[in-house]
Design a protein that fits this description.
The structure holds 2 protein chains of 2 kinds. Chain A is of the alpha/beta class. Chain A contains 26 helices and 35 strands. The chains are: A alpha/beta, B mainly alpha.
């Protein structure tokens, strides 16, 4: 296939082809015309696209009729979900059609956001960037498509020569990333969803997947109805829908997951039931201070984690600890450990990720069918964009880092920049970036595809204090973030543009634009290119490459430049494909090889590394590090952790001690506060709260209380209580024995409701390694209103 | 000429048979269109689009799915006259994953949306006048035809006139509208 436009009806295309010709776009642009709208009686057509919401990456069939999305259903051929969806996926189309969709650019004049032209908005942004380019930040998202993240990163790191770019994935996946890198030398899981089809046991580490990843939950749990002997163990701090389906419920005190993991390892070694051969051949040991230690030293480290000690602090019984140790001791038992925000949003997030790998490495339950530790993700392309492209303050594309000179050289070469121009100093990570915005170390910010005005922890200390900063927001609806904006850019979303997402199991999905965005809304990729071009036209040196040409130059198959900064041209040319092919050059270094764009067009996603075999076929990799599945494992090696930093193909078992949380309940603030999601709403609810069925299902935030605590406070369902922390307070209606019940002394509040911002209350303490804040634990007090 | 005559005769025979069968099952012929309209309205009000998973028209207190199946495993008549429909896919165990409650307290605002879901087709597509209608929806998740088209469905519009013939897909074939758009 040539450079193609997306599907559109024939008449529109022919009109635009003449427009295109008038603009002088060179040869090689062959619009892909489909004139078959009348093919069937109803005019309805189904197209593939990955779901817009969580990181599961379900395949959808999107029904389009008369230029509008009218239905969505599960794609029976999609290997992830096999035809099933959750309520969000079935109603995804509604997210496009909220009445208050942003349709024109807005600029703040005399304190009010007023409609403006694209030209005016872009000019204003460019002028503000020129004033102070290295203190202008981009705050992005795990909902960026791969080309969106890539082009923003190139714009900022290549163009503005600073590293002030970080995504909201910092609040979501950073601990998992650093956990993977410290243990295996490279990011992202070895296992895949197929393991859920063959495992015997799933252990949820603080993970309510019946609500948060329901399609995967059903993929596993429905095996029971078909007669498979499977078990589910729910380790959590509150009873949820997952608990209801689980065979065992293990309730622990917040933060003591670290003790439980070390406690299991203690028992495996005490009993001598760890996988001795695996440990001897595939593993080495390190202390918390990064120094190598011996197996004996590791055993000595585990000495204190006796079942009695762990039980006393965690509240988990000795029998339950023994049951977990029994499972990991049984060499025939196939175990998948699952986690998501419970372990990642943790002030010791990196450590607890390492500790769960320890359990699987000691017991040899890794890189085998049905046995794997698996980290789930919350955003559709947290993996594909933030982690693989590397849109982080310290990173360069394809697993490279700004500190490494060789990595900078390689990047400069692909971007055609003069040697030595990339900035080696990492930028601010998310929490620090918003603090810098408040203090003035960052003077301008462009927020893309995310809603920090609702999702940042401890909101009183971030945007509320950032007056007089130049604040640009690309959005689809008015949000808790656009209220701070000086410029609001209306964006195209999901199937209103071309895109690629990468899901939790390393699967890269592609989709085509199916419908036109409303009003003057335009792609985020175009917005970035247009601002870059304006800077170039204003003579900004950074936007020129080595030869003085435009840094974000887009060329067609014949090498002719395409004027992609002109919307009429951009809209008819598949810029995504060009950017993806450029990005693909970066991916082989860390063996995360991607296939050409066309392969993704014809597949329902492919899991990297995707490598061409001797027959010339591009083959995906279901399980990494496994001989026969992963092309980078040499014959005869069996399992090889080939990305190990030391070059010895061994994974690292870390001796990470238990450390208490920074804030614990006391006399004044006697309750634990945990925040999270619900099945109907996705993150800050910008999209799902505009879908009638989903809004009606769960219209507002509430606080879940344990019945004993409610009795002590003398409150009933729907009574208002005030939740107060050292940082802020909000009032919420009480929910007792609703969809979940927290343990005694703990409360839970969902964060989807923009009229009840629980993040005014939360703590912004973060993991020292991953810099990911802890939304799951802080101390609050409840006052009856 | 003879051929056409025979054809018409056979068609009429089928028609009469269907009418008799329907009558036997108590299908009310009086005021039929008003009834159909009402049923269609109820059906549509529970769905974002034709064949979207219906929302739950009552409050949900349960966390597990066995509670749902207590009423929805079979068509169940409740004391207050309401009828709980039968699920066509009891093998899926996480009901609340797709079917969300709709009567939750705390709604403070109207959802303002331009969403227009796919409408119900007026009539299933047919090869010729009296050939069996094709299936105007996907079969997946709806493999048990009688859970919706069976004689106990209070929604008479959807009832089959011949529930005793168990192999539905022998005559009623899936509609081509369900085809997926492939790319080169």
């Amino acid at each position: 296939m040539n450079n193609t436009v997306t599907r559109r009806d024939f008449l529109k295309t022919s009109a635009k082809i003449s427009a295109l010709a008038a603009l002088g776009v060179g040869a090689g642009v062959t619009p892909f015309v489909q004139a078959s709208e009348e093919k069937n009686s109803s005019g309805l057509k189904w197209h593939k696209a990955p779901c817009r919401f969580c990181g599961t990456g379900c395949g959808l069939l999107v029904g389009v009729k008369k230029g509008r999305v009218v239905a969505t259903q599960g794609d029976p051929e999609a290997p992830v979900n096999k035809g099933l969806l959750c309520a969000k996926g079935y109603h995804a189309g509604g997210a496009l059609y909220g009445k208050d969709r942003l349709r024109t650019p807005l600029i703040r004049k005399n304190g009010k956001l007023e409609p403006a032209s694209w030209d005016e908005a872009i000019d204003l942004i460019a002028d503000n960037i020129i004033k102070d380019p290295t203190r202008f930040a981009v705050y992005g998202s795990g909902q960026w498509t791969i080309p969106e993240g890539y082009v923003s990163m190139k714009f900022l790191k290549g163009g503005l020569k600073s590293n002030q770019i970080d995504p909201n994935a910092r609040l979501c996946m950073a601990s998992a990333v650093v956990g993977f890198i410290t243990t295996f030398g490279v990011d992202e899981p070895s296992g895949c969803y197929d393991d859920l089809d063959v495992c015997d046991t799933v252990i949820c580490w603080g993970n309510n997947w019946a609500e948060m990843h329901p399609v995967l939950f059903s993929r596993f749990f429905d095996r029971k109805a078909k007669g498979d002997k499977i078990k589910m163990i729910d380790m959590a701090t509150r009873r949820t829908r997952t608990t209801e389906a689980a065979d065992h419920y293990i309730e622990f005190q917040p933060q003591t997951d670290m003790l439980i993991a070390n406690g299991i390892c203690h028992l495996l070694i005490k009993r001598g039931t760890y996988d001795k051969k695996f440990v001897q051949d595939k593993v080495r040991f390190k202390a918390n201070d990064k120094l190598d230690i011996t197996f004996e030293q590791y055993v000595a480290f585990l000495e204190e984690y006796t079942p009695e000690h762990v039980s006393k602090l965690s509240g988990v019984s000795v029998e339950q600890l023994n049951m977990l140790a029994d499972l990991f001791s049984d060499p025939k038992e196939k175990i998948v450990s699952l986690w998501c925000m419970g372990m990642n949003q943790h002030t010791r997030g990196t450590a607890i990720n390492n500790l769960v790998y320890n359990v699987h490495l000691l017991s040899g339950k890794i890189a085998k069918p049905g046995s794997t530790p698996f980290s789930l993700t919350g955003q559709p392309s947290a993996c594909g964009t933030c982690r693989e492209v590397g849109t982080l303050a310290h990173a360069l594309p394809g697993g490279r880092v700004v500190k490494n000179e060789e990595h900078r050289r390689e990047t400069e070469e692909i971007w055609n920049l003069p040697a030595g121009t990339l900035n080696p100093k990492p930028g601010f990570h998310t929490v620090a970036m918003f603090k810098a915005l408040a203090t003035g170390d960052i003077t301008g910010m462009w927020v893309q595809v995310t809603n920090p005005g609702q999702s940042m922890p401890n909101l009183n200390e971030t945007l509320k204090k950032a007056h007089d900063r130049f604040f640009v927001v690309s959005e689809i609806y008015p949000t808790a973030t656009t209220v701070y904006a000086d410029v609001v850019l209306p964006s195209a979303m999901w199937v209103e543009k071309n895109g690629l997402f990468g899901n939790s199991e390393r699967r890269t999905h592609q989709w085509f634009k199916l419908v036109e965005p409303p009003g003057e809304a335009r792609d985020d990729v175009w917005q970035t290119i247009a601002v870059a071009r304006r800077l170039y036209e204003k003579g900004f040196e950074g936007m020129k490459d080595k030869n003085g040409e435009f840094l974000l130059k887009i060329t067609d198959d014949n090498g002719a430049e395409v004027e992609a900064w002109k919307w009429e041209v951009f809209n008819l040319f598949n810029v995504d494909r060009v950017l993806f092919e450029e990005y693909r050059k970066f991916t082989t270094k860390k063996h995360k090889d991607l296939a050409p764009y066309e392969e993704y067009v014809s597949h329902r996603g492919m899991r990297w590394p995707v490598v061409k075999d001797s027959m010339g076929v591009w083959r995906e990799t279901p399980r990494r590090y496994v001989e026969g599945e992963d092309p980078y494992v040499k014959r005869g090696e069996g399992i090889s952790f080939y990305m190990a930093k030391a070059g010895d193909n061994r994974a690292i078992i870390w001796a990470r001690p238990y450390e208490p949380p920074p804030e614990v309940p006391d006399q004044e603030y006697p309750f634990w506060l945990c925040t999270g999601r619900v099945v109907e709403h996705w993150h800050t609810g910008t999209m799902t709260r505009r879908i009638k069925e989903l809004y009606h299902a769960n219209p507002r935030a509430y606080v879940e209380l344990n019945p004993d605590d409610a009795e002590a406070l003398d409150v009933f369902n729907n009574d208002l209580v005030k939740i107060v922390s050292r940082r802020g307070s909000i009032e919420l209606p009480v929910s007792i024995n609703g969809r979940s019940t927290p343990q005694k002394g703990a409360v839970f509040v969902p964060f989807f409701d923009e009229s009840k911002l629980i993040n005014l209350v939360t703590l912004d303490a973060y993991c020292p390694q991953s810099k990911e804040p802890d939304y799951k634990k802080c101390a609050v007090r409840l006052e009856k209103v | 000429m003879t051929f056409i005559f025979v054809y018409v005769l056979i068609s009429m025979g089928f028609f009469v048979q269907n009418v008799l069968l329907a009558k036997e099952q108590g299908y009310r012929f009086k005021n039929e269109s008003a009834l159909k309209q009402e049923e269609k309205y109820t059906r549509e009000s529970l769905r974002a689009f034709y064949f979207a998973p219906p929302v739950v028209p009552h409050e949900v207190e349960s966390r597990g799915s066995n509670d749902c199946l207590r009423c929805h495993l079979q068509v169940t008549k409740l004391e207050d006259g309401r009828v709980a429909m039968q699920t066509p896919h009891p093998q899926f165990s996480n009901c609340l994953q797709c079917h969300v409650p709709s009567k939750t307290p705390g709604r403070e605002k109207e959802v303002l949306t331009d969403w227009e879901g796919l409408e119900e087709p007026k009539r299933g597509m047919r090869g010729f006048l009296v050939s069996p209608p094709t299936v105007p929806h996907r079969i997946y998740l709806r493999e048990n035809c009688l859970s919706c088209h069976g004689p106990k469905n209070p929604n008479m519009r959807l009832r089959t006139s011949h529930p005793e013939r168990s192999r539905c897909l022998q005559c009623h074939v899936p509609n081509v509208d369900q085809e997926f758009q492939t790319y080169p």
